[in-house]
């Protein structure tokens, strides 16, 4: 894959006339949203990005370590290959072109020399910011990268995160407004404070938020309102049923603007650009608003305040130990194998599953899988003796068995089916317990 010094997505930004937007936060969010859609990262969830980090071994590397361009190319290509597995055939994305576009943009943003190296932390911050998903999940992942084992944020790592995330704004030529300074992390949190994940989330997701990151929640709101239709008329361009944000003047009566007119400062009648406006991401008809206000006025008990952010555990959660868990396997008949051909393998799988289920435990708050049913040692010994006798008998008599042995074979087949049912039931119970603990 050839790496170009200037990539096509940055040249395309100049053609979109984003620089004519008079608000820096909206201008930055529009540019990053355009890059997000150009590289199809708006189809890749944050959890898909984290899984790609694990598949390519980036989760085991130090954040400040550097990886080669070839390894970054492998990571980016795996993102799009896994994306195509989830998409219908008619919506497949071209892996080579999109991977080349994203790879070159990342290198242009985070490398200043021709060394062909990029830091692991830069890759994590860039992809976690530019992918799709909830902002809560993204910030929680970021906190896991800048906190210690006790669940407290490390201030020097917060500074590194701010440097990396503000590099994205510099890559779209918005560094004069959003840039990093040495005292930026102390403006968010004091050095002597112990910042937990809830403190971190409440600060970064507050309204309007830190001035250096005011474009970040706007980027996520913008992606959610692109398909919202407002069944009204813009008072400036007179366009009906426009999409995106809607703005209503707090001074002029029934004066509403579409996002294009408001962002570019277009006005009409007596409305001025310094008038206070309110932003709307949805539309409610006037009749519904009046009905809601009437119902609210007749209530004797005030509405309960809605908690905007969920509360997360202050201590970091222990990882699940899944080394002894065996995924459920289909029945032999489903795979086209005969019962006699899998007799030995079935016994070996059943005894292995029992031994694993007996010693299996999940290191999460002292909760274990002791409730999983396991066979007793006596029953296991009886199974061993039964199958050993059957195998020895089959080796001695290769011809057709007598009627008495045929009856034993029928009985053994029935017991085999019962054993398979027991093993599958136990395995399902183990997997349900894992899902509950997660």
Structure report:
The structure is a single chain. This protein has 16 helices and 7 strands. By secondary structure, the protein is mainly alpha-helical. The strands form 3 sheets. The chain has a 3-stranded antiparallel sheet. Strands 1-2 form a two-stranded antiparallel ribbon. α4 packs across α5, α14 packs antiparallel against α15 (377-396) and α14 packs parallel to α16 (403-437). The two termini are 40 Å apart. The relative contact order is 0.07.
**Count of runs of 4 or more consecutive helical residues:** 16
Query: How widely separated are the two ends?
Result: 40 Å
Helices and strands, in N-to-C order?
HHHEHHEHHHHHHEEEEHEHHHH
Mean pLDDT rating: 79
Approximately how much helix is present in the residues? 40-55%
Biggest pleated sheet = 3 strands, antiparallel
State the low-pLDDT regions, or none. 290-306, 331-376
**Strand content range:** 5-15%
Strand order of the largest sheet: 6-5-7
Kindly state the number of beta strands: 7
Nearest-angstrom radius of gyration?
Answer: 30 Å
Given helix and strand content, the structural type is: mainly alpha
**What does the overall shape look like?**
elongated
């Amino acid at each position: 894959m050839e790496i170009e010094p200037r990539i096509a997505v940055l040249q395309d930004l100049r053609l979109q006339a984003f620089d004519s937007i008079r608000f820096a936060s909206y201008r930055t969010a529009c540019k990053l949203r355009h890059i997000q859609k150009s590289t199809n990262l708006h189809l890749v969830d944050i959890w898909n990005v984290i899984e790609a980090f694990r598949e390519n071994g980036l989760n085991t590397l130090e954040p400040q370590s550097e990886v080669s361009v070839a390894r970054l190319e492998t990571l980016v290509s795996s993102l799009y290959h896994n994306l195509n597995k989830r998409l219908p055939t008619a919506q497949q994305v071209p892996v080579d072109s999109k991977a080349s576009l994203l790879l070159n943009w990342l290198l242009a943003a985070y490398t200043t020399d021709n060394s062909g190296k990029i830091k692991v932390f830069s890759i994590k911050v860039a992809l976690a910011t530019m992918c799709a998903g909830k902002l809560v999940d993204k910030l929680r992942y970021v906190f896991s990268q800048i906190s210690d084992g006790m669940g407290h944020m490390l201030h020097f790592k917060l500074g590194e995160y701010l440097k990396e995330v503000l590099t994205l704004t510099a890559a779209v030529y918005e560094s004069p407004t959003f840039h990093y300074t040495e005292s930026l992390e102390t403006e968010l949190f004091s050095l002597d404070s112990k910042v937990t994940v809830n403190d971190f989330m409440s600060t970064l997701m507050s309204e309007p938020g830190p001035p250096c990151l005011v474009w970040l929640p706007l980027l996520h709101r913008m992606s959610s309102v692109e398909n919202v239709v407002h069944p009204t008329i813009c008072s400036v361009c007179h366009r009906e049923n426009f999409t995106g944000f809607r703005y209503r003047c707090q001074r002029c009566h029934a004066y509403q603007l579409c996002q294009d007119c408001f962002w570019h400062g277009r006005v009409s009648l007596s409305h001025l650009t310094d008038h206070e406006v309110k932003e709307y991401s949805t539309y409610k008809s006037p009749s519904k608003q009046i009905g809601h206000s009437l119902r609210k006025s007749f209530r004797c008990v005030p509405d309960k305040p809605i908690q905007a952010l969920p509360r997360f555990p202050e201590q970091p959660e222990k990882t699940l130990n899944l080394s002894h868990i065996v995924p459920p396997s289909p029945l032999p008949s489903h795979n086209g194998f005969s019962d006699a051909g899998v007799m030995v393998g079935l016994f070996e799988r059943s005894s292995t599953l029992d031994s694993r289920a007996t010693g299996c435990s999940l290191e999460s708050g002292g909760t274990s899988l002791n409730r999983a049913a396991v066979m007793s040692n006596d029953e296991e010994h009886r199974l061993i003796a039964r199958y050993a006798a059957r195998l020895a008998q089959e080796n001695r008599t290769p011809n057709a068995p007598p009627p008495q042995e045929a009856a034993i074979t029928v009985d053994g087949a029935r017991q085999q089916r019962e054993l398979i049912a027991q093993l599958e039931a136990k395995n399902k119970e183990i997997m349900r317990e894992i899902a509950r603990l997660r």
